[in-house]
Amino acid sequence: NAGVTQTPKFQVLKTGQSMTLQCAQDMNHEYMSWYRQDPGMGLRLIHYSVGAGITDQGEVPNGYNVSRSTTEDFPLRLLSAAPSQTSVYFCASSFSDSGGTEAFFGQGTRLTVV
Amino acid sequence: GESVGLHLPTLSVQEGDNSIINCAYSNSASDYFIWYKQESGKGPQFIIDIRSNMDKRQGQRVTVLLNKTVKHLSLQIAATQPGDSAVYFCAENIRDQFYFGTGTSLTVIP
Hints:
The structure holds 2 protein chains of 2 kinds.
Chain A: E1 4-7, E2 10-13, E3 19-25, E4 31-38, E5 42-51, E6 54-57, E7 64-66, E8 76-78, E9 87-94, E10 104-105, E11 109-113
Parallel strand pairs in A: 2-11
Antiparallel strand pairs in A: 1-3, 3-8, 4-5, 4-9, 5-6, 7-8, 9-10, 9-11
Chain B: E1 4-5, E2 10-14, E3 19-25, E4 32-38, E5 45-51, E6 56-58, E7 62-67, E8 72-77, E9 86-94, E10 97-100, E11 104-109
Parallel strand pairs in B: 2-11
Antiparallel strand pairs in B: 1-3, 3-8, 4-5, 4-9, 6-7, 7-8, 9-10, 9-11
């Protein structure tokens, strides 16, 4: 089973460039989310989706867009990359948005903005 | 934002000993908590969860204790093994969002 797959694993961007981080899950999970992980700050929620066609903002949404056209895919778009967006990004999925079920994380995308 | 903190950023234990990792949370509306393990270069891995209507939950070699009076959560690992070396995060669920602590780095000494 693939679980949650993130691509790419590593990326270097120049300030102002845009890019899309891909996330796909094959577990038919309704709930998907994106986090960023910075040293000493744990994981912070960027955006999340409770189902196809539905997205919402998390704790740190500025500078990021998401869409959920299918149950399987939840891409994260950086519109104009900034050095402050240098981080490790994790995508996660679970059956439920209200807890009580296991949440699965991808392996992460390490992004550097120069 | 919500505050989920850990008492100790690092913890070293001898192989075979029990480990206890603590976590404090600040929002009494939190109704669900999860402990995650993250090994270097990997994504967080679910360990165990607990709902706010429970005080204790046990898994394989792990136990989570929840004290709602003092808003404290702990993860106990029995007979700690070298493979348990990792960073451990607690997370609380509030209104469909998870808030993570900064993590405790556990090192198991052979």
